[in-house]
Amino acid sequence: MSQFALEITDLKKTYDSDVVALKGINLSVKEGDFFALLGPNGAGKSSTIGIIASLVTKSAGKVKIFDIDTDVNFPEAKRLLGVVSQEINFNNFEKVIDIVTTQAGFYGIPLKDSKLKTELTLKRLGLWEKRNEQARTLSGGFKRRLMIAKALIHEPKLLILDEPTAGVDIELRREMWEFLKEINAQGTTIILTTHYLEEAEQLCKNIAIIDHGELVENTSMKDLLSRLDVQGFVLDIDQSLDQAPSIPNFPITLEDSTTLNVAIQKDQSINDLFDQLTSLGINVSSMRNESNRLEEMFIEMVKKS
Amino acid sequence: MKRRNEILVSLITLIRKEIKRYLRIWVQTLVPPAVTMSLYFVIFGSLIGPRIGTMDGLDYIQFMIPGLIMMSVITNSYANVVSSFYSVKFQKSIEELLVSPMPNWAILVGFIMGGVSRGVLIGCIVFCVSLFFYPSFTIVNPLLTISVLFLTAILFSLMGFINAIFADSFDDISIIPTFVLTPLIYLGGVFYSINILPDIWRNISMANPMLYVVNTFREGMLGVSDVSIPFALAMIVFFIVMLTSACLFLLHRGVGTRQ
């Protein structure tokens, strides 16, 4: 068995409108990985996913799913692949249970087995109570869950999610994160595209950034974050201040009277900062990273490309 | 063997889904043809028909029955596939099929079987309605009748599929039925024999493909026809083969389905 769930070689796509979406992407995703594919709107993420899922025809290049060349045996490759598209792609007038059972049938799962699998999948995603409702009556969050249920019904080894939490409230997003972590831990390789970079940082082990149809970065999340020259920290302090304290080499701003934001260079010591704050009589009660670390780097990379 | 079973299951799933789709909205799909054809039988058959007299030696209402059945089969087979396939494109639920391991031919057969089943079912309903107005109707050649019924439903389902592939809006799926199919059907010998036309119009009518479909069916039901039956059957089969090849080619190239 291949150690790669997905291998993309020199993938190119030019649309009929002469728009060049992909200029020759090379990408490998290891089996068991939780992989983030990031990029701004129009970068080529959805074209890449579309080609893998056979929703878009490629202009050139190769795609292998678990070592199966999609040009040689696409049906076999498709059996190992589950795709959650960005846009809702089911008949809104059908019942939830029928949508999922039918999808199982399209994968060749006999009706008796597909009914059982549908029940298990809907229960797993908290949709069982809504099984007899028409899909159009579901809330946005439940529609997203239904999309995931459809993609998982044939138990794929590789699951690709194109912005699965777009428009989903925080609570449901967190629930979905837990669910995705769980199925990844059970062995499913996951590729995720998202605009919430915090999401990628929380979930993904490896990351690729794509822009203008080219890969501008492909590394581990840890390595990427370690390359940050400046890290932002939020400090909660005991007393109330009217203005930010002035400490040489440590730019500090006041978020509110008891919260400080400070930018620390990679080669600076946090202990120095604490020492100087203590000498000014300021006591730090808690400290945390600013959550937009990856966003800063992402914007920097996309600007460079 | 496993792969073959999987394809069979996926095909049955698609056919079941297609049949459920039009049965779920039976008030829109099954009732209107029965009502419309009843009106044709009342007005043209029972009220005006006796004043017309006979057509090709048959009572006018008797002459009209095969034509009206064919008209229903053609319009419903076409309408079912064009609306269903365009809807799955419009709603993007076609992605459910494209991401699955179903081969293109199975997708095509699934939709065509949906159209054929509706066309044949409507044909049977209209025939049952006609028996209320002409109870003594007997079918002369059941084998030819059933063969033409199915072949016609297949042919126009394929046409509907191609229309849906190229359609980009709901307008595009109504233009062909309204401005091409309906006029050709009405001028294709549903209500009259082309023998009553002047020579020039008779010759022009011979270029209307509907004439061959309607007359072959009439030959099966009543034993009368204005055209050569072997030639008509050969043409129907020829166009089925051509259109099937075209549909498979378009699906393979992803025209209208893949970007």
From TrEMBL, chain B:
Pfam families: ABC2_membrane. The keyword Membrane applies. The keyword Transmembrane helix applies. The chain crosses the membrane at residues 25-48, 60-86, 107-134, 146-166, 173-194, 229-251. One of its GO terms (molecular function) is ABC-type transporter activity. Coiled coil: none annotated. Belongs to the ABC-2 integral membrane protein family. This is Transport permease protein.
